[in-house]
Amino acid sequence: MKKSLGAKTLLYPAPVLVIGTYDVEGKANAMTASWGGICCSTPPCLAVSVRKATYTYGNLIAQKAFTINIPSEAQIKAADYFGIVSGKNEDKFKTSSLTPVKAEFVNAPYIKEFPLVIECRLIQTFEIGSHTQFIGEVMDIKADESVLGEGDVPDIEKLKPVVFTPVSRNYYGIGRFVGKAFSIGKG
């Protein structure tokens, strides 16, 4: 028998995403968020949800652009830091010693040291409740060659992305391969 847990933000796993934005003066900022993911195939779009109280919220509204930076296990300490401190009060790039790089296709910074970067142009916002969902059209994806596999696509075992468990508030690495999608269920 299943036990009711009530209504809460529980979806396992949640991605660890670091959103890169510029403020109105052009200062680079980054914020960790786990409320996000793919929301459309054509055009390719990603969605992230952010509270109005965040510095990133104002930056997203002002610049209409953002990057999504995917940290590897080796960068989880910096990714966590980006979610703890507000860019209103501190220069997160200076403190973390990470490097902001101007994105090629949108007016937003990406994090040079993170292995996978997605450049997004803001196309839609939705007020949901405590969060606003920002939908960005993917304009480009950049990956370190060291995380690419066959066919020049990111290899999850080389990338080593991190996931978040919202209720227990823990980070985890990705587990083992269990089957080929759209194939294992045949027959």
Automatic annotation (TrEMBL):
GO terms for molecular function: FMN binding; oxidoreductase activity, acting on the CH-NH group of donors, NAD or NADP as acceptor. Transmembrane segments: none annotated. InterPro entries: Flavin_Rdtase-like_dom, Flavoredoxin, Split_barrel_FMN-bd. SUPFAM superfamilies: FMN-binding split barrel. Its cofactor is FMN. Belongs to the flavoredoxin family. PANTHER family: FLAVOREDOXIN, FLAVOREDOXIN-RELATED-RELATED. It comes from Candidatus Sulfobium mesophilum. It holds the Pfam family Flavin_Reduct. Residues 9-153 form the Flavin reductase like domain. Keywords: Flavoprotein. This is Flavoredoxin. The gene is flr. The keyword Flavoprotein applies.
